Amino acid sequence: MKLYYKPGSCSLFPHIILHETRTKFTLVNVDLRTKKTEQGDDYLQINPKGMVPALALDDGTILTETIAIAMYLADKAPQYNLIAPSSTIHHYRAIEWLAYISTELHKSFSPLFRPGTPELYKDLLKSYLEQRFRYLNQVLSEHDYLVGNRFGVADAYLFTICRWAHDLKFDLIQFPALTAYLERVSGRPAVEKALTAEGLDVKY
């Protein structure tokens, strides 16, 4: 398999899952500005959406979108218990969290990285995100992980997105349960491997 990625982006999420499932894969860095891979290939020929991640399967099939890739990998390696069987409520709790992280956090962070975003809008987004952090802090004050009290796909996604809070200098000290959770996740061997491979800080 090949994971097309950009360091520190949302592609870190499936990158972590690849390590958690001990899948054999190679990384291909993508310049999202030029839409070229590190080998100079036209990335739009691989993923016409022009975004990362994309996962090239061994048979040449291309799978895109973070959640789809992560769930595919988790389902292919059920022995690692990264998502519960579809017959259980925990399976749907995981999907519930993946949807929440995608719509409430991921999409709210994205404009903060765009240089043309008005400062007033950025301030509104930061206030909105802090409300979500407060909710997450409440949940994580009662549970070590999001679903079934064990690490799973939703945790890899939340960790990936919350790293952006660190990059953007959000003050998360006021959310001690969330901070402790992020430190706990960052200490997982698979997470450390993914962070190191992308040249990111290993410790949160």
UniProtKB/TrEMBL annotation:
GO MF: glutathione transferase activity
Keywords: Transferase
Pfam families listed in its UniProt record: GST_C, GST_N
Entries under InterPro entries matching the protein: Glutathione-S-Trfase_C-like, Glutathione-S-Trfase_C_sf, Glutathione_S-Trfase, Glutathione_S-Trfase_N, GST_C, Thioredoxin-like_sf
EC number, UniProt record: 2.5.1.18
PROSITE patterns cross-referenced by the UniProt entry: GST_CTER, GST_NTER
Domain spans labelled GST C-terminal: 87-204
Signal peptide annotation: none
UniProt xrefs under CDD domains: GST_C_Beta, GST_N_Beta
Occurrences of domain GST N-terminal (ranges): 1-81
Stated family: Belongs to the GST superfamily.
Record-given protein name: Glutathione transferase GstA
Organism, scientific name: Dickeya solani
